[in-house]
Design goal:
- The chain is α+β, with helices and mostly antiparallel strands.
- Helices cover about 30% and strands about 25% of the residues.
- The chain has 3 domains: about 110 residues, no CATH class; about 140 residues, L,D-transpeptidase catalytic domain-like; about 120 residues, Nuclear Transport Factor 2, Chain: A (Roll), CATH 3.10.450.
- The protein has 10 helices and 18 strands.
- The longest helix has 22 residues.
- It starts with a helix and ends with a strand.
- About 35% of the residues are buried.
């Protein structure tokens, strides 16, 4: 049973405190790893009992089926690798990758006292937020605790076959960035391939399009009815969960509201992030006040020379604002429900969304607005602005 010893060695030292309750999202991994622990102690009967318990809960767990087959085969001869199946090496490597990832997830306790560095501020409308760490094949769910994220659960996921940083249609990569749940598709409107449902994401976002990235159809979705889970890299770019986990996660998702930040490496918030957040919020308030003051030149200083929106560059935007403001005698601007998310792939870039209440001497309106602010030369400026 050398392969199990190898897998155990590839993971961090096993931590029994990580086992959790059998009903939590890690319960399948708990039973799987407990069987491997039994193997490492040469307790093959105990290992088989653990795998059988797992398969009674979910007989569609193909990795567990494979391990059970190996355990039965081990009674007759030594095993040199996980999945002693001839002419199926590529498929076996997928199973080995899943085993390694699940071992690593089992061992890593989530630092509940820490918050992801990307979730600077949640609006009161956003009951939950999601961060996907593709390097660990893990989706983290957080709840909104007075604007700050609080850990709820995490789930094993599968992502793009060709990795991350999606660039073009059909490249089988998962995008990295700040997105929002844009729709909810029930099982009845989907083929069996997508499992119990799907939640399309807002890829490509404004920053993606600015960087020349294209494609579409990046979803959170489930697995076919005959499959419990897929290998860590098995999708065409989507984020795939087991059907049970998707149904659990779906209770927290709000269409058009829930943020989904996809990163290649989870980072945790520190004092510097808090200082940057405070400085940015102060700059946003100054932008609001300068707009309301009708001092258009001062207002425009909040926009970067590289600004673009709706086909307009900074020069066109400045001309339009000066023309519009020249016809007004007063302006009032109110903003509320501010959310702020740091971009995972671009240092110094944040995505800001809020409800805007605008009134002037000749126009009044309300809208949801989205801005991208970038810090350059120690100064925050807007590089994109538009309707959310």
């Amino acid at each position: 049973m050398r392969i199990f010893l190898l897998l155990l060695a590839l993971a961090s030292p096993l931590n029994p405190a990580c086992a959790g309750e059998r009903g939590d999202p890690r319960s399948m991994e708990t039973l799987l790893v407990e069987s491997m622990l039994a193997v490492s102690g040469s307790k093959l009967d105990a290992a088989l009992n653990e795998v059988d318990s797992l398969l009674r809960i979910n007989p569609k767990f193909k990795l567990a089926q494979l391990i059970r087959g190996d355990l039965l085969l081990a009674r007759t001869r030594p095993l040199s690798t996980l999945g002693n199946v001839p002419d199926a090496e590529e498929r076996m490597e997928d199973f080995r990758d899943e085993a390694r990832v699940r071992l690593q997830r089992f061992n890593e306790q989530h630092p509940a006292a820490l918050a992801p560095k990307y979730l600077w501020q949640l609006s009161e409308q956003q009951r939950h937020a999601i961060v996907v760490d593709t390097s660990k094949s893990t989706l983290y769910l957080y709840e909104n605790a007075d604007g700050q994220p609080r850990y709820v659960a995490d789930y094993y996921i599968s992502t793009g076959k060709k990795g991350t940083e999606k660039i073009s249609e059909g490249d089988q990569k998962t995008p990295l960035g700040v997105y929002f749940v844009s729709a909810s598709l029930p099982r009845s409107k989907l083929t069996d391939f997508y499992g119990s449902g799907a939640y399309p994401l807002s890829y490509p976002n404004e920053w993606d399009r600015r960087q020349g990235r294209d494609g579409h159809g990046i979803w959170l979705h489930g697995t076919p009815s005959d499959t419990y889970s897929r290998p860590p890299r098995a999708s065409n770019g989507c984020v795939v969960l087991s059907n049970e986990d998707l149904e659990s996660l779906g209770k927290a998702l709000q269409v058009g509201v829930t943020p989904v930040i996809i990163t290649s490496q989870m980072g945790w918030s520190g004092e510097q992030d808090q200082a940057e957040r405070a400085a940015l919020l102060s700059e946003i308030e100054q932008w609001r006040a300068d707009w309301a003051s009708l001092d258009t030149d001062t207002y425009l200083k909040h926009y970067a020379q590289t600004f673009s929106s709706g086909g307009m560059d900074f020069s066109a935007w400045a001309r339009q604002k000066k023309q519009v403001n020249a016809g007004k005698s007063w302006i009032k601007v109110g903003i509320s429900g501010i959310s702020v998310f740091a971009y995972p792939t671009q240092p110094g870039l944040v995505v800001v969304s809020f409800d805007q209440d605008y009134a002037s001497s000749n126009l009044s309106n309300r809208m949801k607005k989205r801005q991208y602010w970038m810090k350059r030369d120690s100064r925050w400026q807007i590089v994109y602005e538009g309707a959310a």
